[in-house]
Q: What sequence folds into this?
């Protein structure tokens, strides 16, 4: 007799050769939280620890087929949508997740180091806004990314529009918006969680030295795993921040570029010489 004990999470995203972001990062974070990850590849990256040099976008029909075959075979406890790659991919992903309205959807589509796609990038923002955000349980974006998205419905502004932009996202149908890198003490990283009632949480974490690749991916994937495990969103957001901060504090230097979060820090024997 076989028993399925681990929640299944289906993630849509880019395949990253070094596992810092995208699918590989998601699978590691899911496993660290006791979940089993399933994946749909939306693009293939050429990347190292310093930069993403290029990407090959997966055809939308292949994205749809990858997901449909998996979903016809097994039930999932959550969806995570990362970098989508193209407007066509946004459309097929939105159509797929709409068939599972009771399954939590965590949306984290922005990767700042992705190659710029020009006008397609702007059109993709509109597609994400119109097709995915209204179906989203929790949308994760940095303050900079939120402002960029907001410029698809308002003029650029030098004023602090964060709270207004956040509530506009909630009004679109998104249940929770989690904004990272909000204004605060220079020595801290401040993050805010919003729902229909306004700001729910405002958490501050000590800013760690170094430059990291994959902090956001770790954060959103861990939130997805927490929701798949039945944790409510405000608590999931706090625990995911705590986990991500520890993963960054124990980050690997795999190459000559940025540091990579260690999602399995908790499984390693402590180094007795670490403080000597």
A:
């Amino acid at each position: 007799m076989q028993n399925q004990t681990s929640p299944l999470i289906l993630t849509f995203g880019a395949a990253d050769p070094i596992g810092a972001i995208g699918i590989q990062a998601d699978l590691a974070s899911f496993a660290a939280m006791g979940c089993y990850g399933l994946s749909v590849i939306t693009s293939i990256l050429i990347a190292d620890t310093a930069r993403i040099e290029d990407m090959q976008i997966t055809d939308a029909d292949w994205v749809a087929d990858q997901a449909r075959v998996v979903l016809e075979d097994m039930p999932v406890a959550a969806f995570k949508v990362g970098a989508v790659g193209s407007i066509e991919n946004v459309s097929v992903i939105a159509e797929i997740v709409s068939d599972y309205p009771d399954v939590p959807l965590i949306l984290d589509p922005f990767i700042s180091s992705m190659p710029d796609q020009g006008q397609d990038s702007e059109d993709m923002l509109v597609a994400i806004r119109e097709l995915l955000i209204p179906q989203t349980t929790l949308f994760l974006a940095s303050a900079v990314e939120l402002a960029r998205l907001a410029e698809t419905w308002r003029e650029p502004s030098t004023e602090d529009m964060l709270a207004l932009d956040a509530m506009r996202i909630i009004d679109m149908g998104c249940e929770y918006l989690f904004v990272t890198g909000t204004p605060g003490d220079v020595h801290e990283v401040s993050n805010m969680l919003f729902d229909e009632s306004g700001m729910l949480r405002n958490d501050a974490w000590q800013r760690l030295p170094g430059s990291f690749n994959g902090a956001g991916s770790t954060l959103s994937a861990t939130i997805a795993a927490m929701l798949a495990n039945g944790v409510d969103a405000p608590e999931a957001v706090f625990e995911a921040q705590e986990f991500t901060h520890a993963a960054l504090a124990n980050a690997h230097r795999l190459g000559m570029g940025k540091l990579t979060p260690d999602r399995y820090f908790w499984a390693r024997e402590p180094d007795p010489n670490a403080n000597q």
